[in-house]
Amino acid sequence: MLNFGMKGATSGPVNMRFTTFIYTVMGCGRRPGQRGVTFVELVVVLALLAIVAMIAVPQFGRFASQSRVKRAATELFQNIRLARTMAIKENRQYLIVFDTVNNRYFLGFDATGDNDLLDATDTYALCNDTDGDRLPNSNPDNNGDGVPDCVKTYRLANNYGQTVRFGTLAERRMDGAAIGAGDCNARTACFQGTDPIRITFNADGSVNETGEVYLEESDTGIAYAISLNNSAGDVDLWRWEGDADTQPAAEPYWTEVR
Ligand SMILES: [Ca+2]
Ligand SMILES: [Ca+2]
Ligand SMILES: [Ca+2]
Q1: What range does the domain containing 118 cover?
Q2: Which ligand gives the minimal distance to the CA of 121?
Q3: Which ligand has an atom closest to residue 123 CA?
Q4: CA angle (164, 250, 237) in 5-degree steps
Q5: CATH number of the domain that 154 lies in?
Q6: Residues with CB under 5 A from ligand 3 (ion)
Q7: Global pTM?
Q8: What is the pLDDT of residues 95-136, one digit of tens each?
Q9: DSSP H or E run through 213
């Protein structure tokens, strides 16, 4: 039978004394003739709790990090589909414009035709339009971020956490090809060299650019990618599984999530 074997510890079956401990903790009182929790028992329980915490806390932190960047990637994936839907529904071009420097992106209709969504008449849907011209009647920038409030704006730090940003340290594309220095911003977002970096969705449902956008959680390097594969707007979401140094040769670099 197990015994702590330390001077001062009560002899007897451990499970019996543990039961006594549980009774004590739960406020059920002591059984007649039995001692309560011993110092040794308390130390052992605390040590076990500490070990569990040491294992669980980093795992939880990593899980939380993955959740943040996964949510950012999933919402971007959904927004790419939404932009295409909006272009068809409203019978006009929609853009997603990436500002990778400030870790934000915009979704909307480019009323001024300058391929950006920073002008007062740029809009999302029929925002603030009472005269029916499908443009905002007036569009103050109430929140002072330099972007018309009618444009749908996603700020990675605000929406998902300070450590979520565009980019990746991944060395491979989804097809396994190496990402080279000449691959136009390939480690953040690249859609055929567009500047500003953007995806153009047409009213007939076609998409002008193919390309990739990467999102990572900077503390852990957990990364996701979204690829826009063809002019029909087929989009995939990927999770980074590790570089060649840490990954068995037969394993994929990226796993398709959806
Ligand atoms: Ca514009
Ligand atoms: Ca209007
Ligand atoms: Ca604004």
Answers
A1: 51-256
A2: 1
A3: 1
A4: 35
A5: 3.55.40.10
A6: 141, 143, 145, 147, 149
A7: 0.79
A8: 999 999 999 999 999 999 999 999 999 999 999 999 999 999
A9: strand 211-217
